Every structure is written in C-alpha cells, then in structure tokens.
Amino acid sequence: MDSMTPNDLIANAIQRERSRKGLSLSALASRAGLAKSTLSQLESGKGNPSIETLWAIAETLDVTFSTLFEVSKPDVSLIRADEGARLGSDHATFQTTLLANCPTGTRRDVYRVDLEPGSTRKSTPHPAGTFEHAVVCVGQARVGPLEATEMLNAGDYYRYPADRPHVYEAMEPGTQLIVVMETRD
Amino acid sequence: MDSMTPNDLIANAIQRERSRKGLSLSALASRAGLAKSTLSQLESGKGNPSIETLWAIAETLDVTFSTLFEVSKPDVSLIRADEGARLGSDHATFQTTLLANCPTGTRRDVYRVDLEPGSTRKSTPHPAGTFEHAVVCVGQARVGPLEATEMLNAGDYYRYPADRPHVYEAMEPGTQLIVVMETRD
DNA sequence: ATTCTATGTTCGTCATAATGAACATCGTTC
DNA sequence: GAACGATGTTCATTATGACGAACATAGAAT
Which of these, A175, A182, B168, B179, could form a disulfide with B121 (CB 3.0-4.6 Å)? Predict the structure, then answer.
C-alpha cells in the first residue's frame, strides 16, 4: 500500500527538506514569511495548507514544488549486531558478515572515531551523494543524519546519507566506532 | 519571463485538463465533491486553494498532482492566409507556402470536410499524440479543440492537438476545408 | 413562445487555515 | 544556579477558502 494522504506526504517532505538544509523550524518560518505555528502543524501532519503557503516553503527551501509531494526514500541501512548475511560455516571459529558491497565508481575512506559522552559532534554536510557507513566497536553511540539518528550498540552497522547535517554522540565512555566515508569519483 | 504565480498556473492547468477530458465545470465539481463556485474561482485565477481541494481535483481528473502546476504548452499553430514562409520568387505565377513539415515516424491521412452552418460537428478525441491540420478552402469556419477554437477564413491554416474533444463549425454555406490527421506510428 | 436542463457566475455565510503571543524544553553562558 | 537564547509546541483570534443558494445565460425539447 502506498496511499498516503497529501497531509502526510507534505509533512514528511517538509521535515526532510528542512533538516537536509539544516534549517530550524523557526528559521524556515521567518524566512518564508510564515508563522512558526503554521509550520509546526504542517510538519505534524495536521492541517491543510494553501498553495501560497506551500509555494513559500518550496521557494525558501529552494526545491521544486513537486518535491514536497515525493515520498521520502529511507536512504539508510541498519544492520544490528545479530543480523545480516553471515559467511562461513556455523562451526567455524570466525565469521564475516557482509554489511555493504562496494559500487563501482565510488571511493571509500576509513576513519576511526573515538568519542566521549557529553559532547555531541556535529558534522557539516559533505558533497552530494556522499554516504557514511558506521560500525560501533566499543560502547554505545547515537549516529546519523539529524532527521534519522539511530542508537547503535557494539557490532551494529548503520549506513546513511552524509550530504546533510549529521551527528555522532557517545552514550558511554571510551566509545569507539569505525566510519567509512563513501564518495563518488 | 516565466514567473507565473501558482494561482495562474493552476487556473490554466485545471481548465486545460478539464476540457481535455471533456468535463463541464459543474460535472467536475460534483464528481470531486467540491462546490461549483470553488472551481469557478480557481479557474478564473482567483483564490488560493488548499491541497485537499487540489488533491480532489487531480484525482478526479486522473492526473498526477504536479500536472496541475505544469505550464500549458500551446500545442497549436495558426498561419493566416497572408502569413507564412513563402517559397518561389515574387514574380512567379505560383507560390507555395510551407505550413508544416512532416516529422519522421508520423502518418498523415487527408480528409476533405464539407460543412453547412447551423450544425456543430463535434469530434470525439483521437488517440493521444494525434494532431490535426486544417486549411479552409471556401467559406469560414470555427475549428479547433474546445478550449482553443479559431475562426478561419479561406486560406487560413490551423494545427491543433486532436486527442481531446474538438469541433468544426461552418459560418457560411458551402464551407469546405481540408483536414490532415497526423498520427504517430 | 415556453419550458426545461445544463452551463458558469456572483454573493452572503460558515468552516478553517494562518497568525502571534504565551508556553514548555533544552543547551549554553556568565 | 540563574539568566539567556533558541528550540518546537499549544492556544485564542483573525483572515480567508469553501460552501450553497440565487443568479444569468444559452440550447434543446415540448
């Protein structure tokens, strides 16, 4: 089933595009010449906006009108530590789990990230089409784009678009994770 | 300049799609569950409809949402008897005027139409992508799609999309015209 | 000519979208 | 901790889109 009401479509779309631009609800409202309350209600699925309202939003977000009616593609992939396609026999002393294959025409840089709780590391958007793959080694961390962060425990894998603001936030001391940045070349 | 307000875009689009379907304003209104007055105001460029209203219209017209925001391409070509690109010297005893060239992949059937005043001949839509070329030989006739009829005198040429309801109406006795139907094959 | 049915328009009323102030929360700074 | 700024939410009020009846007009049928 794919029958969403226009309300829901728009609610998702506005939130998606807004967070993609890294704009706050208040900021978007004032730039678009709308009341905060109006936006708030729209993003929560309530309301039935007029086209002038939508037009102002689309222009301010610098997207085409129809973008506001497109369904949000997840663009993320989450594989928990106990999930995934395992390679190797059940009795073997080692196991490998395929987390993501490598598309041709992409380059991958590997980082190790050491995090301590309390400080949320916010990363500015990378070039369009960039993805990040994150695997937690030690501890627990909240990772991902602003609009779709995930709580990851040791062994969990998360892939998300990195061409928008995203965060790394450790929940335990000594948290370590591996981050692979995937860029098109 | 291509900066139309959403109002105008929608006004044009609704009228275009409605007449393309051959629906009356009242009929569309009742099918879409809207008041006639609402549609009337929208089509006259006044008003600032809500998305629920637009959604109902789009669904009833069986078009995608974004269709209602597309600009209306004219799709018609009108060359009066004294216009057009003439071939041959000015002193020659004959002149030819190129009215339309023949795109590859199209087939053209030629008809002669004899009309008398008083009876409006309404033609039902032909397959999508069909065009008609009409040249009046004798008399005067009103020809074209419902939303864009043209008064043609002898020698006038008119090309219009025929995948929607269109009419031939003679204004003088003994009116004759040549109609070429262009279909994709 | 007269009625009847369809067309699209205009208007007063009502429902509701948009507003702005007040509110609640959270981080940051002093 | 207190004060501050920015976040997004909730509410009353106001502006306005949607409605439906009445209207004007045109064609067709009687």
Answer: B168
Q: Which CATH architecture has domain A77-184?
A: Sandwich (2.60)
- Distance in angstroms (rounded) separating the CA atoms of residues B98 and B182: 16
Q: What is the ipTM of this complex?
A: 0.63
CA triple A44-A46-A50, angle to 5 deg: 115
A79 contacts A99 by C-beta, under 8 angstroms: yes
CATH architecture of A6-69: Orthogonal Bundle (1.10)
B-interface mutation test, from A4, A41, A51, most B Cβ less than 10 A away: A51
- Is residue B160 within 8 Å of B88, Cβ to Cβ? no
Residue B122 above 50 pLDDT?
yes
* Highest mean predicted confidence (pLDDT) among A108-112, B35-39, B140-144: B35-39
Q: Which of B50, B66, B69 is nearest residue A50 as measured by Cβ atoms?
A: B50
The distance of B53 to chain A (nearest Cα, Å) reads 9
Interface of B with A (CB under 8 A): 6-7, 10, 48-52, 54-55, 65-66, 69
Q: In the 8-state DSSP scheme, what is residue B69?
A: G
| Helical (H) or strand (E) element with A160 | strand A157-161
In angstroms, rounded to a whole number, what is the distance separating the alpha carbons of residues B66 and B75? 19
